[in-house]
Amino acid sequence: MKRLVIHDPTLRDGQHAVRHGLGLTALRRYAQAADAARIPVVEVGHGNGLGASSLQVGQAAVSDDEMLSTVREALGHSRLGVFMLPGWGTSADLRRAIGHGAEVFRIGVHATEVTLAERHLGFLRDAGVEAQCMLMMSHMASPEVLAEQAARAVGYGAQAVGIMDSAGHFLPADVSARIGAIVEAVGTVPVVFHGHDNLGMAVANSVAAADAGAGILDGCARGFGAGAGNTQLEVLVPVLERSGYTTGIDLYALLDAADLAERELMPAPPVTGSMSIVSGLAGVFSGFKHRVVELCAGTGVDPRDVFFELGRRQAIAGQEDLIVDVVAELSSRATDS
Amino acid sequence: MSPAAGLRGARPEVAEPVTVAVIGTGAIGRDLVSKIDRSPALECRLVAGRNPQSAGLRYAEGLGLATTAGGIEAVLAAPRPFDVVFDATSAASHREHWPLLEPLGTLVIDLTPSKVGQMVAPTVTGVSPATGRNVNLISCGGQAAVPIVHALAAEFPVTYFEVVSTVASEVAGRATRMNLDEYVATTGQAVTAFSGVTDVKAILNISPAVPPATFRTAVHARLAGADPVAVRAVAERVAERVRSFAPGYQVVACTAAGDLVTITLQVLAHSDVLPPYAGNLDIINSAAVMVAEQYATRPDRASRTGVIS
User: Do residues A164 and A298 share a domain?
Assistant: First the structure.
């Protein structure tokens, strides 16, 4: 049976759902529960990763240093993971995370912009920690382009490389084609899939990824994440086991961790609401939801139209300032007509 | 003289143009060469790159300029030092170039975020370096944001600044991509230096959108009792001044909610070689060329080179 590595970004990606407001007690308690379940990697941080606390996407309740030291202390078996977007965080943030004992480092870049990761992947390789490269908004690139970008990431020093379905836009056949092309391009280097559930496909897409050769799959407790949420971890793991894979994760302890997450991390588990469906269809980053709804309030602009317009403009994660323009434009169009 | 005085008159007729070399033939170097070529005060004597096949070198050849693939060594080997050397390479390269150029007495205008020289943002600092012979143009986001943060902090009790820029992937070359750490550090440092606000953050997005995204910078500020009308007036006043050298600079949005103010700026390129969305390159190069043109009129330059103007 093929062994898969499960990577759990509940304490990083879930931050998007609570505006980066997880406190230290919540971080510690979930990390302990995930560790007890033997989840191989527990990732923590601001929703956009190291150094990303900002007005642009939201300021974190606690600093990177506090998050890292708290979760580090709570983990005995699981490895500590972090995420960073070049241009948001810098090598100085990576260096501090290494100092805190982080072991798995992910550099995230837009699907076609892998050259942005060259420097930081090289830095991590030289520092002797595990460096992975994640291609985000991967529905915006073809399987061939993704394969070529992934091969370059490996050339820069990535020890694993993968794709994020940041908008929750994929159907299983899309994932099979992309993961298959990447596996072919990078050979024995593990390939990662990170799903979002906007169209209710995250678990099915993750299984498709495994069947196409992915070796690392991401999942969050109760799907904790922006919008419709991520792949639901405690569903993903038993489904993978039934599909003939092993994960080394203890089922009851995993279910306990998920129950704890629902009680202590989130006001309510994510649901596939109307905005999430629209953002999935439009191919827009799920994290834009709060800001879109907020900025439309009182303007008479339909937030669904804003998502489709943002999709037309190919807005990428980090460009939250574009929402203001789109709402203003749709608002003036409505007034003119 | 107030810093901005004389900005409009910065294209002086000079008896003898200053001699110029450009190192770096990426997108920024190419636009720089086109702007220098148009300036009556500047005479481009050498364009130096590393790759003999680069489009930037071919472009310079097409203008009839002397070119070399010999990089900094070719600049150093010139029989007579250039009056001005523009460095459009990378922050790491600039740190190597400066100790080699410094002994020549050349004015070095650095377009990388190296933090080596004296930072210049024309409407805030003027374009004549007060000290030293190394002028640093900060970054494209710095050029867009510094005039705004400087004016806001002077008029309002700002406690936090955040500067988020978006650049089209098409015009972010390899040096830019390798220099994101320096971009973030240098832009943040410039915001602090010219606003006095110590709690700052700089962010850069590279957007692959098609059609390409026009260069924009959002300045977020935390300030108590923000009056949107007063804030907008300040922003518009600043934009008017910046347009004296970067005509495509405009305020596209200005919002105030609670204690959070956001001013969004966009810069359209006015250039012979750049597409309109490449305002990031246009604003930094326009500022750099102004520094050189101002230098061309300085009496100390004339006495040093023996030219009576």
Answer: no
Q: With pLDDT > 90 as the criterion, what percentage of chain B qualifies?
A: 79
Residue A128's domain comprises: 2-265
Whole-complex ipTM: 0.89
Smallest Cβ–Cβ distance between A319 and the set B166, B177, B262 belongs to B166
Same domain, residue pair B217 and B125: no
Range of the domain at B47: 18-138+288-300
Q: Write down the mean pLDDT value for chain B.
A: 90
Same domain as B126, residue B204: no
Asked whether the bond before B12 is cis by omega within 30 degrees of 0, the reply is: no
**B7 belongs to a structural domain:** no
- Six token digits for residue B120: 């210049």
A196 vs chain B: nearest CA distance in angstroms? 22
Shortest CA distance to B113 belongs to which of B295, B286, B293, B284? B284
pLDDT at residue B4 in the model: 45
Rounded distance, CA A333 to CA A336, Å?
5
Residue B200: what residue type? V
- Number of structural domains (chain B) is 2
| pLDDT of amino acid B1 | 38
pLDDT > 80? residue A314: yes
For B182, which residue in chain A has the nearest alpha carbon?
A90
Residues A246, A306 share a domain = no
Q: pTM of the full predicted structure? A: 0.91
Residues A294 and A260 in one domain: no
The answer on B269 and B144 residing in a single domain is yes
Single-letter code of the amino acid located at B192: T
Are A31 and A123 found together in one domain?
yes
Whether B89 contacts B175, CB under 8 Å: yes
Do residues B190 and B256 share a domain? yes
> Which residue, among A20, A50, A90, A313, would best test binding to B if mutated, counting the most B CBs under 10 Å from its CB?
A90
Domain count, chain A: 2
CATH of the domain at B32: 3.40.50.720
Q: Say what the pLDDT of residue B286 is.
A: 97
**Chain B residues touching residue A316 (CB < 8 angstroms):** 205, 207-209
A149 CB-contact burial (10 Å; exposed 0-12 / middle 13-18 / buried 19+): buried
Mutate to test the interface with B, among A46, A53, A116 (most CBs of B within 10 A): A116
A192 lies in the same domain as A322: no
Asked if residue A235 has pLDDT above 80, the reply is yes
